[in-house]
Design a protein that fits this description.
The chain is built from seven helices and eight strands; from the N terminus they run ααββαββαβααβαββ. Strand 2, helix 3 and strand 3 form a beta-alpha-beta unit. It has a single domain, classed as 3-Layer(aba) Sandwich (Rossmann fold). Helices cover 27% and strands 22% of the residues. The radius of gyration is 17 Å and the shape is globular. An eight-stranded mixed beta sheet has the order 3-2-1-4-5-8-6-7. By secondary structure, it is an alpha/beta fold.
Length: 236
């Protein structure tokens, strides 16, 4: 597949493939489907001036799914080209690492960490930063890949070899997320997580491949062993 990085989890990939971000059938197509599912976990804002911090925001794919919900959408990412695109879609773009977010404590009503935790080299630090940003009672929303043999096989060995599903080499199998560690680290910071497995609708995916559908819905599954969502509120 075009744009494959020389090493797994290469951050420069997102600058090189910046032109693909907003193509519904480009190499980041599945990120559009996941952004829609993530947006579905975010309730309408409960106060004036509510802020949602989008960690690893990329080109701002979450933005359309927050319209009308009442948040100032702040996006944090390292990719300059991606942030330019995010800003063009109404995101207040901030360049920074999710391991050291350049934002103040308790600034966010919602923190979204979508498809980012499986790319970080220090999961406890990333979790601590996400929780630090939350106001008391604030909501943490996550979707990521589980550190299991099944996930490594499906999400890396299979998906990264299928055209238009995932970019070859985008994931480092050593960085996939241990669910028990994730739950434990969030609990240390007063956030009790609930996990739910998800996958693309197979019917939608078949129609999408046949160009009879523009997007693919993510649907719940009984196992969290591959792709999962998590959400929890910071104790207040």
């Amino acid at each position: 597949m075009s744009g494959s990085p020389e090493t797994p989890n290469d951050p420069a990939l997102y600058d090189r493939l910046a032109g693909e971000w907003w193509r519904p059938r480009g190499v980041f197509a599945m990120l559009h489907w996941l952004a829609a599912a993530r947006g579905g976990l975010v309730p309408a804002a409960q106060r004036e001036g509510a802020v949602l911090v989008d960690l690893g925001c990329g080109a701002g794919l979450l933005a359309p799914h927050l319209e009308g919900k009442g948040y100032t959408h702040v996006g944090v990412d390292l990719s300059r080209e991606s942030l330019k695109l995010a800003a063009a879609h109404g995101v207040l773009a901030v360049r920074g690492s999710v391991l050291a977010v350049p934002l103040p404590d308790a600034c966010a009503d919602v923190v979204a960490a979508g498809e980012i935790l499986e790319h970080v080299t220090d999961l406890p630090r990333a979790v601590a930063e996400a929780c630090r940003l939350l106001r008391p009672g604030g909501l943490l929303v996550i979707d990521t890949l589980a550190a299991t043999a099944l996930c490594r096989f499906l999400a890396i060995d299979v998906a990264e070899r299928l055209p238009r599903v995932a970019v070859r080499g985008v994931h480092d199998r050593a960085l996939l997320v241990d669910r028990a560690v994730l739950v434990k680290e969030c609990a240390k910071h007063g956030v009790a997580l609930e996990l739910q497995g998800i996958r693309p609708s197979l019917w939608d995916f078949a129609l999408w491949l046949a160009r009879r559908r523009d997007t693919v819905r993510m649907v719940p599954v009984a196992t969290t062993a591959v792709l999962f969502q998590a959400r929890g509120r910071r104790a207040g």
